[in-house]
Design brief:
This protein is mainly α. Helix content is 71%, strand content 0%. The termini are far apart.
């Protein structure tokens, strides 16, 4: 298992220690959960953006490349 260091000022440390104590979780558990929640949120956002792009591309009219070249006078 790996260890990651985190620099905090005194106020941040007190806030985190109080929060984890009140919620009965370890500091490691809190930080790990926060990191993975952030990753999950970003991955869901990326997935949503991909799905929206896919839906948009399915709705758009496509033109065969041959027709585009002809319309440009390139054959």
């Amino acid at each position: 298992m790996k260890t990651i260091s985190l620099r905090l000022d005194d106020r941040e440390e007190i806030l985190l220690k109080n929060y984890t104590k009140i919620n009965n979780i370890s500091l490691s558990e809190f930080v790990r959960n926060a990191i993975f929640e952030k990753l999950e949120d970003n991955l869901l956002l990326d997935e949503k953006m991909i799905m929206e792009a896919r839906e948009k591309s399915e709705k758009e009219k496509s033109i065969p490349s041959e027709d585009v070249w002809k319309s440009l006078g390139v054959e």
